[in-house]
């Protein structure tokens, strides 16, 4: 299955989604079409599995970063998560861009909903342990931060994602998310009220 998945990505990158066929993928993977059909009954199920695998790897990296950042200050938590997200997507930016193009036609909305749920769960669990916040994390704020991360990175990748652009994106996206979550969560370091 790993060979078939990798072959699917190779054909997708070289031929595009419209020209990708199960026959081409089977040839590239070195298996018969019959063997491929034992795992994936059609092209759509094959592409769905590839997109799902890519998103699972990205989310595993984010979940690990969240777990690692428990019981740290909010700004450090956010930096770890944003950088892990960017690093996961930038391992193979060509694959990320190719998958963006086919996602709407192969169950992308279902996978995005599942990914958003995992992202929210991991971020909420992490943020509840922040050492410097005054309130529980707000689900809407967490979802908005996740959307900002995903949208900004997708835009950068689709514009070509040069190394300098990615460096700037990393710096600015960390700042954006830190500032927003500090305001949303009410960090103690930002409390300007005078103690009576």
In short:
The protein is an all-alpha fold.
Secondary structure tally, helices: 9
CATH fold category name of the largest domain: Tetracycline Repressor, domain 2
Portion in beta strands: under 5%
Counting structural domains, the number is 2
| Strand segment tally | 0
The assigned CATH architecture of the largest domain is: Orthogonal Bundle
What profile does the largest beta sheet have?
none
Low-confidence stretches: 189-196
The CATH superfamily of the largest domain bears the name Tetracycline Repressor, domain 2
Helix share, percent? over 70%
Any idea of the CATH class of the largest domain? Answer: Mainly Alpha
Provide the descriptors you would attach to this structure in a database record:
196 residues; mainly alpha; Arc Repressor Mutant, subunit A; Tetracycline Repressor, domain 2; 9 helices; elongated
Q: What does this molecule look like?
A:
The protein is mostly helical and 196 residues long. It has 2 domains: 1-41, Arc Repressor Mutant, subunit A (Orthogonal Bundle); 51-190, Tetracycline Repressor, domain 2. Helix content is 74%, strand content 0%. It has helices spanning 2-15, 22-29, 33-39, 43-68, 74-90, 93-102, 108-127, 139-158, 163-185. Helix 1 packs across helix 4, helix 4 runs antiparallel to helix 5 and helix 8 packs antiparallel against helix 9 (163-185). Residues 189-196 have low confidence and may be disordered.
């Amino acid at each position: 299955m790993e060979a078939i998945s990798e072959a699917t990505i190779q054909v997708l990158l070289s031929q595009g989604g419209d020209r990708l066929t199960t026959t081409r993928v089977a040839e590239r993977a070195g298996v018969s079409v019959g063997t491929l059909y034992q795992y994936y009954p059609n092209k759509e199920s094959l592409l769905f599995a590839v997109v799902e695998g890519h998103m699972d790897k990205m989310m595993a990296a984010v979940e690990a970063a969240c777990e690692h950042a428990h019981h740290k200050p909010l700004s450090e938590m956010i930096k770890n998560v944003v950088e892990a997200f960017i690093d996961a997507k930038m391992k193979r930016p060509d694959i990320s861009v190719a998958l963006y193009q086919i996602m709407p036609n192969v169950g992308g909305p279902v996978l995005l909903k599942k990914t958003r749920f995992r992202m929210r769960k991991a971020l909420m669990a992490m943020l509840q342990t922040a050492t410097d916040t005054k309130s529980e994390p707000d689900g809407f704020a967490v979802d908005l931060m996740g959307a900002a991360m995903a949208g900004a990175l997708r835009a950068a990748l689709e514009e070509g994602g040069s190394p300098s652009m990615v460096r700037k994106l990393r710096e600015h996206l960390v700042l954006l998310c830190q500032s927003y979550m500090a305001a949303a969560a009410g960090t103690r370091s930002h409390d300007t009220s005078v103690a009576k």
